[in-house]
Write a structure and sequence with these properties.
The complex is a heterodimer.
Chain A: E1 5-7, E2 10-13, E3 19-24, E4 31-38, E5 42-50, E6 53-56, E7 65-71, E8 74-79, E9 88-95, E10 106-107, E11 111-115
Chain B: E1 4-7, E2 10-14, E3 19-25, E4 30-38, E5 45-51, E6 56-59, E7 62-67, E8 72-77, E9 86-94, E10 102-103, E11 107-112
Parallel strand pairs in B: 2-11
Antiparallel strand pairs in B: 1-3, 3-8, 4-5, 4-9, 6-7, 7-8, 9-10, 9-11
The chains are: A mainly beta, B mainly beta.
């Protein structure tokens, strides 16, 4: 399996622009998580999905952030309009819940986002 | 919700020594505890995990112990090597919460050659 695939790996854009981050989870995984990582705040869970349905978006910073999962193999995280304080590494992770017990989350390589 | 605290925030050891990182959790419903290693510029990767029905688990030079009564769990790395240098994160997950992880704040381990 190729693992969790994220694109782009790096994104540099000017404030006010729309940014779209993409994620392809591991095939067969029914949970998908979006995290943001910064030095100041560590790993923050933004939102997660189960079977393509958003379960908890309480970590989404504000209305400028939105996430979708139109099918089991694709998710997007969108920031519009972007601001310099959104600069961070954004990770996508996926997992399954085999045998009704919690399983490890597998992380993608992340998107390093810089908003100028 | 769950609160996971991790200590120390930084740890420096000499190559060959042991390293111990400790985490505490608040919710007794937590029953799954993974540990992740994140090298600089890389993604977090699972290195070991433990479930609440087990008190200790080992995998070569790394081990994890769990004390459910005290609500704490620890990562032990023996015979440390320079390639063990990384940030380590602990996490806790509850049986009823859809695989959601509560992460600790991370420990930066530096192994000096």
């Amino acid at each position: 399996d190729a693992g969790v695939i994220q694109s782009p790996r790096h994104e540099v854009t000017e404030m006010g622009q729309e940014v779209t981050l993409r994620c392809k989870p591991i095939s067969g995984h029914d949970y998908l998580f979006w995290y943001r990582q910064t030095m100041m705040r560590g790993l923050e869970l933004l939102i997660y999905f189960n079977n393509n349905v958003p379960i908890d978006d309480s970590g989404m910073p504000e209305d400028r952030f939105s996430a979708k999962m139109p099918n089991a193999s694709f998710s997007t995280l969108k920031i519009q309009p972007s601001e310099p304080r959104d600069s961070a590494v954004y990770f996508c992770a996926s997992s399954s819940r085999a045998s009704r017990s919690n399983q490890p989350q597998h992380f993608g390589d992340g998107t390093r986002l810089s908003i100028l | 919700g769950e609160n996971v605290e991790q200590h120390p925030s930084t740890l420096s050891v000499q190559e060959g020594d042991s390293a111990v990182i400790k985490c505490t959790y608040s919710d007794s419903a937590s029953n799954y505890f993974p540990w992740y290693k994140q090298e600089l510029g890389k993604r977090p990767q699972l290195i070991i995990d433990i479930r609440s029905n087990v008190g200790e688990k080992k995998d070569q030079r790394i081990a994890v112990t769990l004390n459910k009564t005290a609500k704490h769990f620890s990562l032990h790395i023996t015979e440390t090597q320079p390639e063990d240098s990384a940030v380590y994160f602990c996490a806790a997950s509850m049986r009823y919460n859809f695989n959601k992880f509560y992460f600790g704040s991370g420990t930066k381990l530096n192994v000096k050659p």
